[in-house]
Design goal:
132 residues; mainly alpha; 78% helix; 6 helices
């Protein structure tokens, strides 16, 4: 009998979590994010300076999506922690965010592969969040 109660309680918790996840994705303006993503992809295909900007814009776009989906936190890092596994492969998203920070705060020249990896990570995270 206690096992049945535990199973029932677990099922209810799971249903509530699924409903909350679905609610988050309904509050997002997909058309905005799709348009923004096309702009980012255009930047990625041009000059080295534009590719740097593509990473920065992709980071801003993910941060806006996290805010639009009501993830709490004073910084983007806090919001990324709050989103956790909903971002997909979390290590890839953190890699991209750290690359963005280096681009903004240091005079670094990333390799084209690093830029591609970061852009791909942002795109995958935005897809997981329902923005793309």
């Amino acid at each position: 009998m206690p096992e049945l109660i535990a199973i029932a309680a677990g099922s209810i918790v799971l249903l509530v979590l699924i409903q909350l996840a679905q609610k988050r994705t309904t509050n997002i303006n997909r058309a905005y994010y799709q348009k923004k993503w096309l702009e980012i992809k255009t930047l990625e295909r041009t000059s080295a300076a534009a590719r740097r900007l593509a990473v920065i814009e992709a980071d801003k776009t993910l941060d806006r999506a996290l805010k639009d989906l009501n993830f709490k936190g004073a910084t983007m890092s806090d919001r990324m922690r709050a989103a956790g596994q909903l971002l997909g492969k979390v290590d890839n998203v953190w890699y991209a965010h750290k690359l963005r920070n280096r681009l903004v705060h240091e005079e670094t020249k990333p390799k084209a592969g690093d830029i591609r990896r970061a852009i791909h990570a942002y795109q995958a995270a935005l897809k997981k969040l329902g923005a793309l």
